């Protein structure tokens, strides 16, 4: 019964934030009939809301479809028709995401939860008709979402990214960097800072980050007696938290896919200064490394490693593994060059899509860029250049390089599946007019609670991601709801969307069932339970400071005000921990 109640608490919190969201300030309706309170009107699909006959395009006076009137027969020239669903613009429009969230919390399985939420949306749209449900779910939902040109570009980018990750690993670039680092890093602090820097540099994808940083830095940290629990924390904390603030990453592509009007990348960049958990996590890692402080269970692991050389505190789940001699002829450049190429090509691709080469300014071009086109073209060129480079280097055979493409595709299948289902769920809620229902409630029940929404959304994201083990699924569910509450010109919209991403990353960082957490412990070859228990106090510390920062940002939604305050709060927290740690060491020394 206790576990059942524990699972229901996050669900009740989700329902609470939905009710609170309905009480926030809204924007006024315009002349568009869909903007009127209680409207059941939708844009006519036959004429794309133009009101013109799309059979003859106003060119054939003898057209049988319009009878020579040149007027769309479906909407009679108005451009709008009434929704076929009886549940359009009602509370039931919120049922699909609620069902998906509730099932994800109860079952801790995101794929089936998202799909069931999609089916519920199809049933409501088709008024529970069998044929209509099937057609709406698969044709108007899954097929339409996946075949959308913008979404398809994002999916291809993920596949290419997976192929490049496979290429770099197979070429031996990671092993070469490890050998270089062993001869250039001289202290424990240096080894920890090198791990953080490498993790921040490999910001393209969190999976790539965990696997690469772990294999590269294990020999270095072992040499300087850094516990595997500490290494796994540094790996985990530079995976998702770094990817979620990197404009050129699989995470940026995912978030961009959830935004409206193709402005996802611009929205992602605007949200970076408000992503307090990610930014403060980096500050936290640097602080504890430079100040040489550890607390909670981590302190015992670090003490054992420094004093007796016991990196595992007596529990090594990998002690039966055979250590194979590294015979790779890879170079450090085999890791660095492909990453640099990918960054440069993707930046160039986004500038191209924004019209930079047609005379548009750099900032304007980057803000107006199409993430789908830019990342797709950039990653494609980077892959070709990398293949040419590895071919000239003779790092591997041509057939071996080609085999990296399907291997990369397979590695990205979970991400592609979550993204496709999240897009489809968003399409279901849109087809039911969920955003209009929330807008109407917001408009008629104004209050000042909207100032606390960033902090509330952050907590919801933490709970959802912790329970489900997935951050992509979490912000895939929450971002569409936030976009329904605030128009994009409202300053709080950016803060709340950033809170969605920060909460999702925080929960994912803490969750023992998160794939990133599991890969971080595997990359460091650390016992998984030890990794989760030792990093939890650190993550909770940053989450607490982030929560307070989001409360402040709700009242002061200016990045140049909120971010410095958050940094000061984190520094004061670190200073307080340092003073307590120093006092405890003094007490122990005097007792001896």
TrEMBL record:
Residues 242-555 form the Na+/H+ antiporter NhaC-like C-terminal domain. It comes from the Bacteria. Residues 1-28 form the signal peptide. GO terms for cellular component: plasma membrane. It is a multi-pass membrane protein. The chain crosses the membrane at residues 87-106, 113-130, 150-169, 233-254, 274-293, 335-353, 373-392, 412-429, 449-467, 536-553, 559-580. It is found in: Cell membrane. The keyword Transmembrane applies. Keywords: Cell membrane, Membrane, Signal, Transmembrane, Transmembrane helix. InterPro entries: Na/H_Antiport_NhaC-like_C (IPR018461), TAT_signal (IPR006311). PROSITE patterns: TAT (PS51318). This is Na+/H+ antiporter NhaC family protein. It comes from Evtepia gabavorous.
